Amino acid sequence: MSANTPDAASSRRILSIWLPAMAMDRWRNAGDEGRRSLDNRPLVLIADTAHGPRIEAVNRAGMVAGARRGMMLADARTLCPDIVTAPSDPAGDLAFLEKLAIWARRWGPWSAMDAPDGLLVDVTAVPHLFGGEERLVADVEAAFARRELGLRCAIAPTAGAAWALSHFGPQGAILEGQGDFEARLADLPVAALRLDDDVLTVLRRLGLKRLGDLAGIENGGSGRDAIQRRFRNRKSPAANPLIRLDQILGRVPEPLLPVVPQHMPLVQRRLMEPIRHRQLLDKVVEDLAQDMARELEGRGEGARRLELGLWRVDGEVVVRRLEMASATREATHICRLFAARLDDVDAGFGIEMLRLRASWSEPLALEQGDIEAAAETHGTSLAACIDRLTVRLGVKAVSRPVAFASHIPERAQRWQPPLAPEPASQGELAFHKRPLKMLDKAERISVLYATPDGYPKRFRWRGGVHEVTRVEGPERIAPEWWRERGSTRLRDYYRIEDDRGRRYWIYRLGIVGDGRGGAPDWYLQGLCA
Amino acid sequence: MSYADLSSLPITAFEDVAALSARRSVRWRPGLAAVQGAAHHTEVFTASGDAAGAGVALALALDDLRHLPRADGSEADDRRNVLWVQTRDAARLNGRPYRAGLPQSLQSRLIHVMAEKAEDALFALEEGLRCRDFAFVIGEMAGNAKALDFTASRRLTLMSERHGIPLFLVRIDAAHDLSSARMRWEVASAPSAASAWNAQAPGDPAWKAELFRARSHAPGTWTLSGGDTALTASKLREDTDRAVAGWTAGLQHRRSPRAR
User: Fold this and answer.
1) Are residues B98 and A503, on separate chains, in Cβ contact within 8 Å?
2) Alpha carbon of A432 to those of A99, A508, B110, B193: distances in Å?
3) At A287, is the secondary structure helix, strand, or coil?
4) Is A380 in contact with B131 (Cβ distance < 8 A)?
5) Which chain A residue has the Cα nearest residue B135?
6) Contact state of A470 with B190 under an 8 Å Cβ cutoff
7) From the list B101, B114, B188, which residue is nearest A435 (CB)?
8) Mutate to test the interface with B, among A393, A396, A443 (most CBs of B within 10 A)
């Protein structure tokens, strides 16, 4: 048995904590004494659904009275008319679990949430600090008991095994990596595999009720192949019992997402006297920016997005957001950007509090400040320049042209934010000469005299008459049939030069007799250098 | 107010002055940046419906970049960005830059700013000149905007000279108003030379460019032509060259008898 258990799995220790009545415990602890006095009366937490209120959590007395989780409230009322109800709060439960996951890091270096009501803590090489694994489990139980949260926990070499034991094993179970690993799990029901309900139904119909049954099939030889065939299309671990079984036994890795607490850098100033004048406001913003720069410097980060909140005396809050092209923690730069955004702030009766928050920050290494005097004349960096331009002119105004995979000339170029990475593109064909400038919309020209070859000899554009002296073309560009309508006409492009040397790029939309409209029109689209 | 008659002074007084004059009044020619450094703040006047202005501005800027002596610490390949500021009017009249038609070296280095008003465009130009990460800045403005007065143009000149970033301001359909630009050109398209492969086709672009005011050059008219690699200039009239030989006022030592 232990021969096919890898060593890597046995060296790890995962603590699984399950709070069977987390929602109810949380509701009970959150309120005043009145909530605790309901302990002996049937109580349910309900959520509203399309078919009426449904029970989300039940306390012990309610359980005795016959109410179950997932039951409709009306059904429970028939069993127990004097049932007490309270609204459930799934979002609050999740936030509570998140805080609990961070709190649980007192027992191990990292922890992961196991929504909706469980936690996983990596306690590898930690238990000796608590005096052994039994003492560690006792410490966990004591800590949760102090918070009046009911729990079941288990320690095992893999997350799957710890989860199974905490939910279906004895309280405080500790599973050693060697020896009886699989034997001790053999009596657990197949629900311990963390499978979806429909898969559990299939297994029940197959007569596979315990993990030992599944493992026994494996040892019989051909049994694993039979299950493999039945679940061959199920790639998700929650739908395939064999993957889950391998995860429990540590044969395949199971990645867990640890919860990492992150604190947004935040600085604020409460003002003794509300300010109403711009000059004072600028001074306070400058102080805030300096505080923020210090805060960010301590964390080795730079801000990408900043939010400045201004609390007014009369209860209004004005918020100004700023987004930077690259991470920065320069107080003067931040001040300068905010100065442009504070012009339209109405101070009303005065501003009593300001708060600056960096809601998005990126790592930015500390660097040596310029100590030479010459550095002052160096000018600004590209990112700072882009920031200033976008703050005054808007995000759309500053852009960079990038190539796009299309034949149609106006679609072959797109505009993207200036500092975004350039997408990969195919090289241009060198013999396709393109104009230096392109009009936003191709302008129609009226042909006054056409040569027999088909291109115009003389045409009128914007009121002026152009006499064509040189011409190159046509370069035929067909419509993109995979995205345009079938009636779209092709274009024949010509590069021309007129009698005064002006060079243009014109095209004829369609050809005579293509069955997509009358005589083709001519358009001028580009201006060549 | 009376000027001293220069011809009454001894010749020796002019030796270093003449050298100075010769250095300062050197005729403009492509590649002059190798000797004099890049030109700061150049204005290019052009008509609407003609891409000559942008073409000449790009050609002059690239010519300066090619010939500038490289500083010791700088990279062998200049990868700095280029800022191109347009007002909405200018984009409507003469179009927006098109990536595939730009010179090869600039295709991935262009940052474009679309300004609604002339004031915004001037702000963007000034911010661009202040930024050390731009190789040069091109502005395109239509008409004689009120915001672009002598004070504004002087601000641009000072900013350009202080940070060493060249500015090329294309003025579309504008009168030659007061400006502190160091060089002012009036350009129009000219018939191009025949293409090497197709006699019927337009060849490399050519422009007729008149330098009508410059701080350190004599005025003149050239036919500029350039592909992606080099800018060539041929003088339209040779005799104008002689006529302005000693154009810097007062430094002309000996007048020709015919002029007297």
Assistant:
1) no
2) 61, 17, 21, 19
3) helix
4) yes
5) A382
6) no
7) B101
8) A393
* B198-247 residue pLDDT tens: 888 888 899 999 999 988 888 889 999 876 678 888 876 655 555 555 55
Q: Which domain holds residue A10?
A: 2-18+93-248
**Residue B36 CA: distances (Å) to CA of B67, B189, B246:** 10, 28, 19
Predicted confidence (pLDDT) per residue in A296-312, tens digit: 999 889 998 999 999 99
Instruction: Classify residue A258: in a domain, yes or no.
Output: no
- Interface check for A131 against chain B (CB to CB < 8 A): the answer is no
- Identity (one letter) of the amino acid at A160? G
* Contact call for residues A43 and A86 (beta carbons, < 8 A): yes
Residues from chain B contacting residue A439 (CB–CB below 8 Å): 95-96
Q: Is the ipTM of this complex over 0.85?
A: no
Number of domains in chain A: 4
Residue B252 has pLDDT above 60, yes or no: no
Q: Which of A221, A248, A275 is the last residue of a domain?
A: A248
- Read off φ and ψ for residue A152, nearest 5 degrees: -135, 140
Three-class SS string for B161-172?
HHHCCCEEEEEE
Tell me the chain A residues in contact with residue B85 when contact means C-beta distances shorter than 8 Å: none
Integer Cα distance of A19 and A192 in angstroms: 16
State the Cα–Cα distance between residues A521 and A193, nearest whole angstrom. 70
H or E stretch at A447: strand A437-450
| The CATH classification of domain B6-68+79-192+199-243, taken from the options 3.30.2350.10, 3.30.465.10, 1.50.10.10, 3.40.50.300 | 3.40.50.300
A302-343 pLDDT, tens digit each: 998 999 999 999 888 999 998 888 888 889 889 988 988 888
A339 Cβ under 8 Å from any chain B Cβ: no
Q: Which of A380, A399, A472 sits opposite B202 (nearest CB)?
A: A472
A450-475 mean pLDDT: 87
Residue A121 lies in a domain: yes
Q: Which residues of A touch B190 (CB under 8 A)?
A: 501
Dump pLDDT digits (tens) for A102-114.
899 899 888 998 8
- Residues from chain A that touch B126, judged by Cβ atoms under 8 A, are none
Q: Which of B79, B98, B130 is the best residue to mutate to test the A interface, defined by the most A CB atoms within 10 Å of its own CB?
A: B98
Distance from CA of B35 to the nearest CA of A (A): 23
Domain closes at, from A203, A218, A248: A248
pLDDT band at B7 (very low <50, low <70, confident <90, very high): low
pTM greater than 0.95: no
- Closest partner residue to A502 (CB to CB) among B50, B98, B165 is B50
